[in-house]
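*** Residues and shapes ***
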Amino acid sequence: MPLVPMRQILDEAAKGGYGVGAFNVNNMEQIQAIMQAANDTHSPVIIQASRGALSYSKMIYLKKLMEAAVEEFPHIPVSMHLDHGNSLETCKEAIALGFTSVMMDGSLAADGKTPNTYEQNVQVTCDVVEYAHPLGVTVEGELGVLGGIEDGHGAGLSEAEIEDHLTDPAQAEDFVARTQLDALAVAIGTSHGAYKSGRKDPVTGEMLPPTLAMDRIHEIHARMPNCHMVMHGSSSVPRELVDIINQYGGNMPDAFGIPVEQIQDGIAHGVRKVNVDTDSRLAITGAIRKVFAESPGKFDPRDYLRPAREAAYEVYVARMKAFGQAGHATDYTPLTLEDMKELYK
């Protein structure tokens, strides 16, 4: 099975009322772990790469790894997605290499840090849609600005500043109508990275989850029930994974993520794509630190990358089950980009 358009994966998720994890990758082990998890849970899946990942692994290597993945598991619907594209040119490069979906993050300027005006966002997103849809390629856009800086994207906003950059539901309706995109990333208070919250319990001093504006998702879904929403920065940063890192020499105090229950609430109200990156990074790092601490004589990369891959696999399986995509891999006949060209017409 060739890579499938992400639009079909999201459409089918909407019909089934479930979400689909979009997992960021940088190397072979992550791709292998994702595909094994998708196979074992019988899940459709979205694999995505940020600009930072593409710089690290180089686009051509990532393309060949993805070709191997779909050849090994031909029954699994897989979309390859560009995460946080910063310009039309970046999106064109990804499409030329066979990506079946691209994100144009027009909420930020090309530097990935400076917020764009609304009209600038509309224009650059329209430019990408006009280029991608005739090629059958799915387009995700973003309205509002996420906090945190990870892999060079994100505005680095404080909690107070985030409130001013949340997605406005009425503006979202206008944005979708004007751009005709396929998926809308919404800013509701999530952020990239492992430090998503500065909130602490005033009595115990324990870290608390970030305050999310879930009402924005509820209202957007009420206004546009057919709009496929995307939650970025949705790693849950499990305490047990952070503890392993710290146990074996790491230093990650006060790391906190998004409770799975809040993600599931979003899925019940129109969220179809859930971006997860940090959780697998934590699992991989903890597994490698454990090997080095317990077996300091080990030097073969396979000795630490194998357990790292296994740890990431466990995260992917858990998320696929929690988001509801498990069991849906063969619910539908996959479309090609050629099929999508006709549908977009």
